[in-house]
C-alpha cells in the first residue's frame, strides 16, 4: 500500500539534497507519495514568525510523517525557530541521532565510533521561560517533568532493545541540579531496573562529554536532557568526520519528523556540491518507521557501498582515501547504481522485521499522588541596599514572627545571611526564605500576608515560590551554604 509523507525542500542546500534523496527513494522502489509544504525563508519573509504556513499543519497532522530539509533561521526580529515550533506543537519528545564513523573511508580520529544519542526534545531550558526580575539580573526556568523523563528514558531502553544495542548511558548534572537533573537520573535508575538485559551507567555531563569527545567507542546509546543532548549530539556528529553525514529522527506519539542534522549551509548553496547523506540516512530512518525495513536496508547498504568505493562529496574527499570527488547529483546517482549491492568492507545493514509506525511509544505510569504540605515561601525581592544584615532586620520588623520566620537570605544562589561573607558579590536581586514558625501550619492566607508585609517594608517583590514537602522530602533545594 502506498504511503503519503509530507516533505519540505527548505533553504540553502535544502532543495539540492532533497531532490537527491527523493531520486534515491524512487529508484529503490519506495512506494511513497509526497505532499509538499513550504517552510523557512520565503515564509518568514511573508511575515510569518514561525516560518511555517498555518495550512501546513493540516498536511503534517494528516500524513503524520515529515521529511524535512534544513532551513535558514533569521536572526532576531522575533522569529521563532521552526524546529522548536514543530517539535513542541506535534509533541515530538525524542530526538534520535545515530553517530557512526566510517573509517577508513571517511577520515576521523575515532574509527570505532557507533553510538546513538537519544535527546529529550521538549523540556529543560527549551521552554523558553525567561525573566528579567531586576535591571541587573535575568533568569531562565529549567522545567523537568516526571512523565517527560519516563517517556524519553523508556524510549531509549526500547530503542536499545529493538536495535540490538547493549548499553544505555545517562548523562546529567545532578551533582549541582539535585532536583531537576536528579529527577532524570532517578527515573533512569527506576526504568533501567526493568531492562536487566541491557547494561546501564551514568556520567556527570561534563566528564561524559569529555569522554565522548576523546573515546566515543565506549558509548552505545546515550540518553540525556534537552540542552546537554543538543550540544553533545553536534560534537558526536562532528567527530564522525563530517556534519554532512548524520540523519536524525524526532519521534512523537502521533507524528514524527526526519531530517539531516546539519543546517542549510548557505556558504555552499546552489553549487551542487553538498553531501546529501544526512538527509538520505534520515529518509532511511523514516522508512524503518514506516515499516519499509527492506527498502531502508537496500538504500543504506547501497550508500555504504558508495562510501567504501571512494565516491565522496567535497566535505569527505581526501586524495589518499577517495576514488572520485562527486557533486550532489552524482553522489545520488552512485547510490542508485549500487542499489541491490551490499558493502564489502563495512558490515551490511539488516533492519530485521518491519514494524509499522516504528517502535511503540511508551506511556508514562500514573503514580499515586504524594502527600504534599506547604512549609514556607522563597520571596525574590529587589533591594538596593548592600548589607544583608540590614535587609534581614527590615524583613523581621514587618513579618508576623508568631507565624513565620526568616530562615535565610541568598544572592545569586549563595547564602549571605545569617553568617555570610563580605567577599560574596551581591546584585539587587535577593531571595528571602521564609518558613513556618514552630508548630504553625502554614496556609495560603499566611503567605499572602507575608507578601503584603514585604511590600509594606518597601521591597519590590519580583516572584514568590512556594516551598512544599512531598512525603516528607523537601521539594526545594537548600541554599548554597544553608
Ligand atoms: P550548517 O550545518 O549549515 O553549516 C556548517 C558547516 O558545515 C558549513 O561550512 C557548511 O558548508 C558545512 N555543511 C553543512 N552541511 C553540509 C553538507 N550536507 N555537505 C557539505 N557541507 C556541509 O550550520 P550553520 O552555518 O551554523 O547554519 C546555517 C543555517 O542553517 C543557519 O540559518 C541555521 O539557523 C540553520 N540551521 C538549520 C537547521 C535545521 O533546519 N535543522 C539546523 C542547524 C542550522
Describe the structure concisely for a colleague.
The chain is 32% helix and 24% strand.
Topology overview:
Layout lengths: L2 E6 L5 H14 L4 E5 L4 H5 L10 H8 L1 E4 L13 H8 L4 E7 L13 E7 L9 E5 L2 E4 L5 H17 L4 E6 L7 H13 L6 E6 H10 L6 E4 L1 H14 L7 E5 L4 E5 L16 H13 L3 H16 L2 E3 L10 E3 L1 H10 L34 E11 L5 H11 L5 E8 L2 E4 L11 E8 L7 H13 L3 E11 L2 E2 L8
Parallel strand pairs: 1-2, 1-3, 3-12, 5-10, 8-9, 8-10, 13-14
Antiparallel strand pairs: 4-5, 4-11, 6-7, 11-12, 15-18, 15-19, 16-17, 16-18, 19-20
Helix pairs in contact: 1-9, 1-11, 5-6, 7-8, 9-10, 10-11
This protein binds nicotinamide-adenine-dinucleotide (NAD).
The site of nicotinamide-adenine-dinucleotide (NAD) has 20 residues, from loops.
Task: Report on this structure.
The model has no long low-confidence stretch (mean pLDDT 94). By secondary structure, this protein is α/β, with parallel strands linked by helices. The chain has a 10-stranded mixed beta sheet, sandwiched between helices. The longest helix is centred in the first third of the chain and has 17 residues, at 146-162. Strand 1 (3-8), helix 1 and strand 2 (32-36) form a beta-alpha-beta unit. Helices cover 32% and strands 24% of the residues. It is elongated and about 85 Å long. It starts with a strand and ends in an 8-residue tail after the last strand. The protein has helices at residues 14-27, 41-45, 56-63, 82-89, 146-162, 180-192, 205-214, 226-239, 277-289, 293-308, 328-337, 388-398, 444-456; strands spanning 3-8, 32-36, 65-68, 94-100, 114-120, 130-134, 137-140, 167-172, 199-204, 221-224, 247-251, 256-260, 311-313, 324-326, 372-382, 404-411, 414-417, 429-436, 460-470, 473-474. Helix 1 (14-27) packs parallel to helix 11 (328-337), helix 7 (205-214) packs parallel to helix 8 (226-239) and helix 9 packs antiparallel against helix 10 (293-308). The protein has 3 domains: 1-89 and 241-357, 3-Layer(aba) Sandwich (Isopropylmalate Dehydrogenase), CATH 3.40.718; 114-239, 3-Layer(aba) Sandwich (Isopropylmalate Dehydrogenase); 372-474, Alpha-Beta Plaits (2-Layer Sandwich). The chain is built from 13 helices and 20 strands. Nicotinamide-adenine-dinucleotide binds at residues 13, 70-73, 83, 243-244, 259, 262-268, 274-275, 278, 315.
